[in-house]
Design brief:
Number of strands: 2
Oligomer: single chain
Strand content: under 5%
Order of helices and strands: HHHHHHEEHHHHHH
Number of helices: 12
Largest sheet: 2 strands, antiparallel
Structural class: mainly alpha
Length: about 280
């Protein structure tokens, strides 16, 4: 069920744990993970913003990416280098996506439908306006990520410590990739494991709320898929309620992460890393 996230999540966790003391090795692992599936790139971005060794991280990420691209060219995969972007362009609004929640309620009351895409092998919302919203989500994602980058960069420029800045910034970026995504696959919730583990390691005293929310999200996601997924496709009441609760909790997690990011103190006072 986890598909390739069974590889990227462990790589992201290991790389994240090494960011403070082995930034080059950590960046290399995270970069490899990002080329497998793009989301670990959010951790690289957060680390580059928060760390003082950002130039070494950037050089490592770009150099390793250049090697990977060269290898792909030599293997004849040059036409598929950006497939992770182009293959998503034709997707509609998947039923589990956060933005699809109102449409699922409309489908429950008969005002919309759940359709199967034989081309993409996925269930999508069938209703006028759903495709327009799906097309808007990608630029919304880009703008949201840019806003978080600006906030993080300002905090770093004002002397925010690495252990305080990295965890909320990393979590906010990862949750943004989920909340603003037109796809809502259950394995997306595993992405949250890496930034939450980083929060526990670097700033344990403030990690309680995000950790608890992620645990509940995992339970709700399991209740939706695979336990009640067939009923969800029929838009039965219970799975639609479960999906709504899960998606609202994702938004709450994003709000909590952004709030923690904004409240990261300025100054260069030392913050103890609790392990």
């Amino acid at each position: 069920m986890y598909r390739i996230d069974a590889i990227t999540v462990p790589l992201a966790v290991i790389g994240g744990c090494w960011l403070a003391r082995r930034p080059v090795v950590a960046t290399a692992l995270l970069t490899i993970a990002a080329w497998i599936k793009i989301w670990p790139g959010a951790l690289v971005l957060a680390a580059v913003i928060a760390a003082r060794s950002r130039m070494r991280m950037l050089i490592t990420a770009f150099a390793l990416s250049a090697v990977i691209v060269l290898m792909l060219f030599l293997l004849g995969a040059d036409q598929h280098l950006f497939g992770f972007l182009t293959e998503q362009a034709g997707r509609g609004l998947q039923v589990e996506a956060v933005a699809a929640t109102p449409f699922m309620w409309m489908a429950h009351f008969g005002a919309a439908s759940v359709d199967y895409s034989f081309e993409l092998l996925t269930f999508q919302i069938g209703m006028p306006g759903a495709e327009v919203l799906a097309g808007l989500l990608t630029p919304i994602m880009v703008l949201a990520v840019l806003a978080l980058v600006v906030i993080g960069a300002l905090k770093a420029a004002r002397g925010a410590s690495f252990p305080r800045l990295l965890p909320p910034l990393a979590l906010a970026l990862v949750v943004t990739l989920i909340v603003t995504n037109k796809v809502g696959s259950p394995q997306f919730q595993t992405w949250l494991i890496a930034p939450v583990i980083l929060w526990i390691i670097f700033d344990r005293t403030r990690s309680g709320i995000p950790s608890a929310i992620v645990l509940v999200l995992g339970g709700l996601t399991c209740a939706i898929y695979p336990l009640t997924y067939d009923a969800l496709l029929r838009t039965d009441l219970l799975p639609v309620v479960l999906l709504t609760a899960r998606n609202l909790l994702l938004i709450a997690l994003l709000v909590a992460a952004v709030r923690a990011l904004v409240r990261v103190p300025n100054g260069r006072g030392r913050t103890r890393i609790r392990t």
